Amino acid sequence: MHSATLARSVRLFRAFRNEQTDRDTFYRVLAADSADQVAVHVPLAGSLLLDVGGGPGYFSDAFRARGATYVGIDPDVGELSARGAPGQNMLRANGTRLPVRTGSVDVCYSSNVLEHVSQPDVMLAEMVRVTRPGGIVFVSFTPWWSPWGGHETSPWHYLGGHYAARRYTGRHGHEPKNRYGTSLFAYSVGAALRWAAACEDATLVRAFPRYHPWWATWVVRVPGLRELLSWNAVLVLRRGRGRRGGAPVLCGRAGITPVPSPSSVPVRSSSAVPGRRWPAGRSTAR
Ligand SMILES: C[S@@+](CC[C@H](N)C(=O)[O-])C[C@H]1O[C@@H](n2cnc3c(N)ncnc32)[C@H](O)[C@@H]1O
User: Fold this and answer.
1) Does the beta carbon of 60 lie inside 6 Å of ligand 1?
2) Residue 221 — φ and ψ, nearest 5°?
3) Smallest CA separation from ligand 1 atom 27, residue
4) 116 Cβ inside 6 Å of ligand 1
5) pTM to 2 decimal places
6) Over the chain, what is the mean pLDDT?
7) Could you report the per-residue pLDDT of 142-195, keeping only the tens digit for each?
8) How far apart are CA 4 and CA 211, in angstroms?
9) Which distant-in-sequence residues (6+ apart) come within 8 Å of 266 by Cβ?
10) EC number(s) in its UniProt entry (predicted)?
């Protein structure tokens, strides 16, 4: 059961402050909290969950502990292997072109990835596409105008992303890991909400600031203010049947190229996903 109390927000903030020195604790606390947040919207026991941009699978233990079958994808081999050899349930793939069948997962989850993608609307549309009708898309990201929008270059991103990156490089003698225009982009809560409103194949169930106590979630309803005060924004969408019976997804301006129909894609059974069949031909990190 998820309870968005002030004590919980303080606990998360304390864990975040120690992220660099004690990553395991930070991710254990965050992952448990995230799994509880998802469980509010969909039963996790027995579900198939795809984590888009899951890195080395920080959240896998928490989702598995709640009975979900966890599959993570990430395009970056370094991220996939950040905690050692990636497991069989981790695939190397891009969130804007998921090697996953339309309508095949119960939950499509993504945490802190959208702002690292040059085409966030395309990734959102892909997440909707692979989710089964009635399933849930749960996506969170750091809005550009939030205090942490520039990531390690914050708060100088308020003076411009390129300026903040140059300043960071000058001070630290190396470029920031999250490089504006390359691996960090300015995505806003407003843009995400507009995308959701235009998506014909999913309905927005809820938008809220991820870490706030329940009595402060109203900020997400106020244009302008929500960009500054959300810190991290969550969108929860429920997949509908879609205009064409649940196959291709057209969301907003980001019409995506549908992946080939299941009958034309060679498939293999994944040992990580008993009873499920996944498109073959994409490399895993192994
Ligand atoms: C800040 S980390 C977030 C990791 C984890 N989801 C979390 O919440 O801690 C961003 C992740 O997004 C991944 N990423 C970047 N571009 C991506 C893309 N186009 N598709 C999927 N993942 C991507 C990165 O490799 C990285 O692992």
Assistant:
1) no
2) -90, -5
3) 55
4) yes
5) 0.86
6) 86
7) 999 999 999 999 999 999 999 999 999 999 999 999 999 999 999 999 999 999
8) 8
9) 279, 280, 281
10) 2.1.1.222, 2.1.1.64
Q: How far is the CA of 261 from the centre of ligand 1 (A)?
A: 27
Q: What tokens appear for 61 in the block?
A: 């233990």
User: How far is 191 from 283, CA to CA, in rounded Å?
Assistant: 32
Chain centroid to Cα 179, Å, comes to: 19
What domains can be seen in the chain, in order of their start residue? 6-143+187-279 (3.40.50.150)
Q: Residue 109 corresponds to which tokens in the numbers above? A: 């989850």
Short-list 268, 267, 272, CA closest to 88: 272
Measured distance CA(196)–CA(128) in Å, rounded: 10
Query: Ligand 1 pocket check: which of 16, 28, 70, 74 to mutate, most ligand atoms within 8 Å of Cβ?
Result: 74
Residue 117 pLDDT greater than 90, yes or no: yes
Q: How far apart are the first and last CA of the chain?
A: 36
Q: Are strands 105-111 and 48-52 parallel, antiparallel or unpaired?
A: parallel
115 C-beta neighbours (distance < 10 Å), count: 22
On the question of pLDDT at 247 being above 70, the answer is no
Question: Which tokens go with 71?
Answer: 């599959």
